[in-house]
Amino acid sequence: MLKIFNKQIVLCCLATVLMTSGLMTANAQNSKDKEIKNAAKTAAKATAALDELMKIPANSIPESLLKDAKAIAVFPNVIKAAFGLGGSGGKGLISRRTKSGWSAPAVFKLASGSAGFQIGASSTDFVMLFMTDGSLKNLLEDKFEIGGEASAAAGPVGRTAKASTDAQLKAAILSYSRSKGIFAGISLTGAVISPDNDANQALYSFNAKELLTGENKVSLDSIPPATKMFQETVTRHAK
Questions:
Q1: What is the reported pTM?
Q2: Which of 64, 103, 176, 224 could anchor a disulfide with 127, C-beta 3.0 to 4.6 Å?
Q3: What number of other Cβ atoms are within 10 A of residue 75's Cβ?
Q4: Element (H, E) at 230
Q5: pLDDT value at position 106?
Q6: Domain spans of the chain?
């Protein structure tokens, strides 16, 4: 009788373990699916924002700067209300130029830094051009504050970069913003960029540092549909 009772206990324990394991697997899959879905939404917004910014050549990012950029970041629909000190203002995508083309886009977060960086509108699209190897290296850190580790300047607007100031020519990062249809260069000094590796792991099974090291961890034809459109749009505008 005792043996039968003990056997029942063992079977109950095994059933509990299997059920718990199944629930954990299902929850993990649901979490991954959610991250991919959110990344796809961010990518769609970033793609639309970049296309909109480049629509009118006379009032867009100079092509010569796009062609010289080491990496391009787009943070769409950054919300002022969510941009308090230390808070995350929004998410965006960053793609790096490699020998074979623009890399699989990594997901990053934009937040205010120690200086309490603030945006001036309820919803703003930001574009950043990383112009130096040093600024690109900063992206491989857990997080970095613009202006602290890398100099930044409001980027020039127009067909060419001939009218660039000395500060713009020397800046490691050139930044732009678009709010309520108005596009202009803007200094993002004080903003903090950090990787969203939950999203990156869900999308690629790699973190941002692995994606942006310059080696194609994810081949161009293996970039998932969630972020492929953004990579293609960057390629089109910054060949």
A1: 0.80
A2: 176
A3: 28
A4: helix 225-237
A5: 97
A6: 53-237
